[in-house]
Amino acid sequence: MLQALLNKTKGDRWIWLIIILLSLISVMAVYSATGTLAYKKGEAVEKLLLTKHLIFVLLGIGMIYIAHLLDYRYYAGISKILMIITIPLLFYTLVFGANVNDASRWVKIPVIGLTFQTSDLAKLALITFLARMLTKKQENIKNVKESFIPIMGSVCVVFVLIALANLSTALMLFGVSILLLIIGRISIKQISIVCVGGAILLLFVVFLGPRRATYASRIKSFMHPEQQHSDKTFQADQAKIALATGGVFGKGPGNSTQRNFLPHPYSDFIFAIIIEEWGTLGGIVIMMLYLVLLYRCIKIVTRAPKAFGALLAAGLSFSLTIQAFANMAVAVGLGPVTGVPLPLVSMGGTSMIFTSVAFGIILSVSRDVEENLAGKETSEKIKNNKVIVGDIPAFG
Q1: How far apart, in whole angstroms, are the C-alpha atoms of residue 295 and residue 128?
Q2: What does the pLDDT read at residue 44?
Q3: Which of 242, 243, 218 is nearest to 228 (CA)?
Q4: Angle 234-246/270-303 helices, nearest 10 degrees?
Q5: What's the predicted TM-score (pTM) here?
Q6: Which long-range contacts (CB under 8 A, 24 or more apart) does 319-325 make?
Q7: 381 pLDDT exceeds 90?
Q8: What is the pLDDT of residues 235-282, one digit of tens each?
Q9: Could you say which of 196, 228, 352, 355 is the most buried, measured as most Cβ atoms within 10 Å of its Cβ?
């Protein structure tokens, strides 16, 4: 049965393997991390959360399969629609968004009652839109009026709207955008102007934005933890305890104690729980999976026959891996608390769906690369067969 399912999938087999492994790790880690809720609120809560997470994991894999079957060129047209929806939605989130963990990042979907972060949709929309714009403008890519201003206008608008509610996500998306501009042959001079402009916007958001107090507190807590009250560094301190007690081989699956103290052990700090239970070796395995993912995606980028496919795969793969390493950096104390989930591992409904769609688009580009290479091989075989037949002497 498994072989039959694998035969129906296309694209890079290593990426499919990474998706399956991360999904399995996610189910085990989330099941363990929700144990404290079972203790506090009863086993029914734990079963409900695990069942809900399993549904979203399976739904995510289904979305990957559907997205990878669709020709990636269709996403160029879809990107325009996504941008038209995304910008008003980001405005709406700032004004009317639901407050979760002291941040208006969420929008409630009518009727079904689910909430989702509009920044997840914005990441997908901006990356696909940038890939489309950079491809279309290649002939006049150095032209400031025709190429630079329209491209950077979309980046700056999305950056500011996300940053006002979620600075960490905005900074990561801005970094991915800069990488895409470099790959898309925007001049270094123009990119430097963008970085200066981005720094000015960042200062505006940090010192004048509605969440300036939160940002200042997090940065100060990270830079000078010894000067802060314990409640300011509580999450970071508990994560460090998890790392220290995990050791090299860990306490074993299900034996975490810090899950009882960390506020979000199944989402933002799930990597700390993984290291506590599976040890430093388990953490290294997770890191290696994301590094292999990045390596396989870079191979796709270098082999993609079309610029749009290469830029699309590059942008989405950079976004996923940068987010993964940002989450892990926070968990091990190398960065301030951000609230960024670990892709395909942290518990989350709509965030897992958007992440899965991104994986599906990457696999769609990979599928096109494979079909293109297969077509070339077939052409070479036909050509070689013609040469062989032509060399056979005629009889009679």
Answers
A1: 20
A2: 57
A3: 218
A4: 80
A5: 0.88
A6: 319/123, 319/127, 319/172, 319/173, 319/176, 319/358, 320/290, 320/293, 320/355, 320/358, 320/359, 321/290, 321/291, 321/293, 321/294, 321/297, 322/172, 322/175, 322/176, 323/172, 324/290, 325/287, 325/290
A7: no
A8: 888 888 888 888 888 898 888 888 888 877 888 889 999 999 999 999
A9: 355
Cα–Cα distance measured from residue 240 to residue 234, given in angstroms and rounded to the nearest whole number: 10
Determine how many CB atoms are found less than 10 A away from the CB of residue 359. 28
CA distance linking residue 340 with residue 355, whole number of Å: 13
Task: Show Cβ contacts of residue 215 under 8 Å, excluding neighbours closer than 6 positions.
Answer: 167, 205, 206, 209
Q: What is the average per-residue pLDDT within 285-313?
A: 93
* pLDDT of amino acid 395: 35
Contacts of 354 (CB under 8 A, 6+ apart): 120, 121, 123, 124
Nearest residue to 68 via CA among 382, 309, 390: 309
pLDDT in tens, 90-148: 888 887 766 655 555 677 776 666 677 888 899 999 999 999 999 998 888 888 888 88
pLDDT (0 to 100) of residue 209: 63
If DSSP codes are grouped into helix, strand and coil, which group holds residue 100? strand
Which of 242, 239, 260 is CA-nearest to residue 251? 242
Enumerate the H helices of the chain as residue ranges: 2-8, 13-33, 35-41, 43-69, 74-96, 118-136, 149-163, 167-183, 188-208, 212-223, 234-246, 270-303, 307-331, 350-391
**Strands across the sheet containing 115-117:** 98-100, 103-108, 115-117
Would you call 338 helix, strand, or coil by DSSP?
coil
Distance of CA 97 to the CA centre of its chain: 22
Distance CA 237, CA 331 (A): 10
| The two three-digit tokens of residue 132, written as one number | 């489309």
Residue 271, number of CB atoms within 10 A of its CB: 26
pLDDT tens-digit readout, 156-173:
889 888 888 788 888 899
Residue 361 is which amino acid? Answer: I
Cβ atoms 330, 340 nearer than 8 A: yes
